[in-house]
Amino acid sequence: MNIVLHILLVVFSLLFAARKRRASRLFLIFFCNSYFLQNLVTLQPSLHCRCLFPIITDRLADLLYAQLSFLDFQFAPAPVYQSIAVQFAEKTEWIYVRCIIQEIADLKEKHCLKGSDSHEEYLYFLQHYLSQTNFLYCFFKKYPLLIGLLYTKVQSASEYINELFAHLDHDKDMICRQLCDDRRFSKVINISTNLSDEHLHGRTVVKIELDNGCSIFHKPHSILNAVNYHKLQQWLFEQCRLDDYPFKAIDYGTYGWELEIPHCACQSSQDIEAYYERFGIQLCLAYSLNVSDLHFENIIACGKYPVFVDLEVFPNRINCVGKFKHLSDFFKDTILTVGLLPQPVSKNHIDGSGTDAAAGKTMPFKMPSVADAETSDIHIEYIHPRLKQGKNFPVYHGQIYLPNSYATHILEGFDKASQCL
User: Fold this and answer.
1) CB 409 within 8 A of CB 278
2) What's the count of helices (H) and strands (E) in the chain, helices before strands?
3) Which residue, of 45, 89, 273, 280, has the fewest CB within 10 Å?
4) Is 199 helix (H, G, I), strand (E, B) or coil?
5) Which residue would you say has higher pLDDT here, 343 or 229?
6) Rounded to the nearest 5°, which phi and psi values hold at 10?
7) Which residues, 6 or more positions from 328, have their beta carbon under 8 angstroms from its beta carbon?
């Protein structure tokens, strides 16, 4: 890759640090002419994203990939950087999608889109408007905050990936020893970004698949709560004369690593009973330690082990004795606060607990969604999103086993733990 591109990107970074407005203007020029500059500096062929408006997302992916290509980490081959760039660009589409939808609506109202149907009119817009440099200039001038936000996103993503791989490089020996059973790795074979809400300038949970067969998660915040909780849980299971799942994690204060917990099937019907007995033990511990937010997405059934993940809300329960103003306040100091047991259902609240079969349920609130995609009638609709099936139930011979038939085992586990505590 030509050094000219690297110099341009460095200039943008320096200007951004000094004067954001000037950097955004140069970024606008670079962005709108990226295909021309691609030939000028002999970039590799453009990356292609799966999205509504590939002209913009492809260019964003190219720009991020151009920056990532200069990172000097031997374990990260070019396809990994390309995958990161594409995932990033596809996620940024929400930033500008409403503005482009408005442009399409305005052009259609003026009868400027040609085609025999709405899909052909959409394609006409992509080919004769969105792909044209003059239109892009006018578009970003009309919505001046967009280019600055997109530039900030590209810079933040580049900085985070550099930070992520620097952590992986620095912590390599510790990761192999504590997470991978001393299995060495030499390359990253795949990476999945955007696995959580963003923290601190676009940082998210990232899954990294290594060539030693391990998959690990990089979390951009301390995971000390999770480490300490699982130590206490291990002690409790020892008191109950049961084995515990070997939760593996490393906390570095501002970030941490966790080994992936697989969602795997039980080996026998006895494993299902053992699962729910352990569930009762962990319910007792979680309640005793004021843990909350253990909804169906924060539990993974790994054979006979229910494993809690994302233990960020710990401790959280507030003693509300004598402070009840509403019926909902009553539940704030009960075992229901943990989130594992079925929750009160109302018009504005679904269950979503750790024992809820959430698949197919609709959320009580509406979220924006693109309707009539890839047509000139494209618009935003507000719909009730549907929940997907979680990994919070034991599976045996392909069948999911719900807790309804195992209440006795849950109570036995809870009673056993309460006596130990």
Assistant:
1) no
2) 14, 11
3) 45
4) strand
5) 229
6) -65, -40
7) none
305: helix, strand or coil: strand
| Predicted confidence (pLDDT) at residue 256 exceeds the cutoff of 90 | yes
Residue 164 CA to residue 418 CA, distance in Å, equals 41
Q: What is the pLDDT of residues 351-409, one digit of tens each?
A: 677 777 666 677 778 888 899 999 999 999 998 888 788 888 999 999 999 988 999 99
Q: Which two tokens stand for residue 253?
A: 């204060």
**How far is 280 from 158, CA to CA, in rounded Å?**
44
Name the residue among 189, 197, 243, 234 with its Cα closest to residue 216: 189
Report the C-alpha gap between 390 and 360 in whole angstroms: 11
Positive or negative, the Cα torsion across 408, 409, 411, 412? positive
Distance CA 393, CA 306 (A): 8
Amino acid at 142: K
SS3 at position 46: coil
Q: Are 412 and 273 in contact (CB under 8 A)?
A: no
Q: Quick: pLDDT tens for 210-230.
A: 999 999 999 998 999 899 999
Is the preceding omega at residue 315 within 30 degrees of 0, hence cis?
A: yes
Q: Determine which helix (DSSP H) or strand (DSSP E) holds 268, and give its type and residue range.
A: none
Q: At a CB cut-off of 8 Å and minimum separation 6, what does 342 contact?
A: 351, 353, 355, 356
Residue 70's pLDDT is what?
78
Given a cut of 80, whether residue 338 has pLDDT beyond it is: yes
Cβ contact 95:146 at 8 Å: yes
Torsion of CA 359, 365, 366, 367, to 10 degrees: -70
Q: Provide the whole-model pTM.
A: 0.84
* Residue length of the chain: 421
* Residue 233 token pair: 């849980």
Q: Which helix (H) or strand (E) holds 31?
A: helix 20-32
Encoded amino acid at 186, one letter: S
**For the chain, what percentages of helix, strand and coil (3-state, to nearest 5) are there?**
50, 15, 40
Q: Which residues of 234-259 are buried (b: 16+ CB within 10 A; e: fewer)?
A: eebbeebebebbebbbbbeeebbbbb
In angstroms, rounded to a whole number, what is the distance separating the alpha carbons of residues 54 and 100?
12
Query: In the prediction, which pLDDT does 49 show?
Result: 57
Tell me which amino acid residue 252 is: Y
Q: What does the pLDDT read at residue 349? A: 64
Side chain identity, residue 200? L
pLDDT band at 155 (very low <50, low <70, confident <90, very high): confident
Q: At what angle do helices 144-170 and 93-109 cross, to 10 degrees?
A: 150
